Amino acid sequence: MRTPADLGAVQEMELDATIGPLSEKIMAQIKEELDISIDPKDFTEEFAYHLMFMLNRLRFKIHQPNAILEELKTKYPLAYEMSGIAARVIEREYGLEVNQDERGHLASYFGVFLEENNIGQRRPFRIVVICGTGRVTARLISVQLKRIVDSQVQIKTMSDTAASPEVVENYDVILTTVDLPFKTARPVIRIREIFDEKELKQKLEKARYWDRVDIPVLDGNQYIMSSLLDENKVFFFEKGRSYEDALAEMTEILSDEGYIDEGFGERLAEREAKGTMVFDNAVAIPHGIQTANDRMLLAMGIFEETVQHKGHDVRIIFFMALPEQSDVDDMLMIRVYDELLEISRNREMLDAIARTRDYQELLRVLYKS
After folding, report:
1. Host H or E run for residue 320
2. Which of 123, 222, 239, 298 is deepest in the core (most CB within 10 A)?
């Protein structure tokens, strides 16, 4: 093919007329299966050329190894899941099987699309650092912070005497080395001048979603999903219960509690009829759009013993109901999807979750991880 190495030279080659519709079908299928809208933006043309060259490699059995395949699976589980959807579309449309290395190349693009969409929707995250021991200490904290946050984050330092409820209200999170003499609705993280960067990074990640989760807690637990769960959203099913019965019970109770609208169950059944929502290692992630409120819902169902659904084993249900329109929840949804897919590939953790029989035991598993 004499495939050029840079996009400028690639553009001299005529793009196959079938590639644009193929790209649109892939994005539509991702929307259908995951309820995530992907806009390639500046990468539309580059992605189209990638698809064209990939199809030719598959036709002529030219293998292009992917040196970072395992890292992609680990760091971008949602992007890798999207590559699987794209692979199924390509197999359906062209009869070509997409190998693991090519899936990895596709996942790289989807990882870029997710990050670009995330940055485009997200306003700058604003951190205020309140320090009572002088400007040098404040600068030391800022230098450490810049190592763990991205360039979009805005950091402001101020003395404890300059801080007030009205001032800090304009920030997303407050880091302070001293006790604040006032109350505030914003999340507050008490830090030392030299702090544990990994632990603080996890707390800052949770602070991003402070206003969008039901139980906002700033702690060292890595999972945002744990802040979406409470005792009313975790269900334990005894032996003999079927997947269909369990899903119906979860839907009915969550609807009665006002978390989802009455029509959600019917829409979920229509989606289930089109295909399975079972992922790796007997994990099901049924999901759909809800109109009861503007918040994302996550619930869990845990079976005492593995059940069958459409020829697949199921032992854990992650039940997701997504608001019809919310840019903030798009960011939260992508983060939670990543966490759920990461857990679904961790057999040891799944076994630990499956052995739990109450909410407190489940929390201990999540926090231990």
Report:
1. strand 312-323
2. 298
126-208 and 227-368 in the same fold: no
Confirm if 288 and 267 have CB atoms less than 8 A apart: yes
Gap between the Cα atoms of 316 and 293, Å rounded: 26
Q: What is the 3-state secondary structure (H, E, C) of 225-274?
A: HHHCCCHHHEEEECCCCCHHHHHHHHHHHHHHCCCCCCCHHHHHHHHHHH
Q: What gap in Å lies between CA 118 and CA 92, rounded to an integer?
A: 30
Q: Is 7-121 assigned to CATH 1.10.1790.10?
A: yes
Q: Judge residue 20's burial from the number of C-beta atoms within 10 Å of its C-beta, 0-12 exposed, 13-18 middle, 19 or more buried.
A: middle
| Residue 45: pLDDT band with limits 50, 70, 90 | confident
CA distance 72 to 80: 7
Which tens digits make up the pLDDT trace of 222-250? 788 888 999 999 999 999 999 999 999 99
Q: If residue 220 lies in a helix (H) or strand (E), which one and from where to where?
A: none
**For the chain, which residues make up each domain, given as ranges?**
7-121, 126-208, 227-368
**CA R_g for the chain:** 23
**pTM greater than 0.70 (yes/no):** yes
Query: Both ends of the chain: CA-CA distance in Å?
Result: 48
DSSP string, 262-311: TTHHHHHHHHHHHS--B-GGGEE--EEEE-S-SS-EEEEEEEEEEEEETT
Contact 257, 270 (CB under 8 A): no
pLDDT digit string (tens) for 324-339? 865 556 778 888 999 9
Block residue for tokens 């002088």: 134
CATH 1.10.530.10 fits 227-368, yes or no: no
